Amino acid sequence: MTAPDFTAVTHAGPDSQWITMVHGISQDMRVFSAQIDAFKADYRLLLIDLPGHGGSAALPGPYGMIEFAAAIEAAMAEAGVEGAHYWGTHLGAASGLLLACRKPDLFHSLVLEGPVFPGRAMPSVSAMLDRVARAARNEGLDAARAIWWARGGWFAIMRDRPDECRAAEHRAIVDDF
C-alpha cells in the first residue's frame, strides 16, 4: 500500500513518544490543528489524511476499513514510527482499532472518539449517508455538504458551541471534502 499524505511534527525531539492522529469521514488532518500546539512540545505528532480525504484525495480506491488500516500502517512505517499513542476520530478510530487488533505492538494506547465498528450496521449513519448521496446526485455537492453539516448528529456540539468547538474551521474542512 502506498502511504497516504501525512505530516510529522517533530519539535519535541527524537526521544519523545509519538502520537498518531487520524480524522473521520469528510475531514482531514486539519481537524487536529488545535491539538498540535497543545502537544508538539512534548510529543512527536503524525497527522494522516486517509485515502479519499485531504492531501490523499487522489489515491485510487476503492476504500474500506482494511484499506484505511493499511494506509495508517504505511504512513507510520514511512514516517519511521515504530510505536505510538493513537488518537482516531470516527472513521479514524475504527481504522486504528482494526490495525491495533492486527498489529498491537504499534500502539502504546488508543483514544477512539466515536468509532464506527467494522461490519456492524449503524442505521442512523447509513440513513444520513443515503440522504447526503441523494442530495449530491439531485441537488449538487454544495447541497450535500450543507445537509451533512446541518443535520449530522456528529456535528451537533459544534453547531451548539461554535466558538469553543472551532465550528467555522470544521465547516471549512467539510466544505473542502
Walk me through the structure.
- By secondary structure, the protein is α/β, with parallel strands linked by helices.
- The chain has two domains: 1-119, Alpha/Beta hydrolase fold, catalytic domain (Rossmann fold, 3-Layer(aba) Sandwich); 121-177, no CATH class.
- It has seven helices and five strands, in the order ββαβαβαβαααα.
- It has helices at 33-39, 65-79, 91-102, 123-139, 141-151, 156-160, 167-176; strands at residues 6-9, 18-22, 44-48, 84-89, 107-113.
- A five-stranded mixed beta sheet has the order 1-3-2-4-5, with helices on one face.
- Helix 2 crosses helix 3 (91-102) and helix 4 (123-139) packs antiparallel against helix 5.
- The longest helix is centred in the last third of the chain and has 17 residues, at 123-139.
- The two termini are 23 Å apart.
- The model has no long low-confidence stretch (mean pLDDT 93).
Question: What's the short version?
Answer:
44% of the residues lie in helices and 15% in strands. It has 177 residues and is α/β, with parallel strands linked by helices. β2, α1 and β3 (44-48) form a beta-alpha-beta unit.
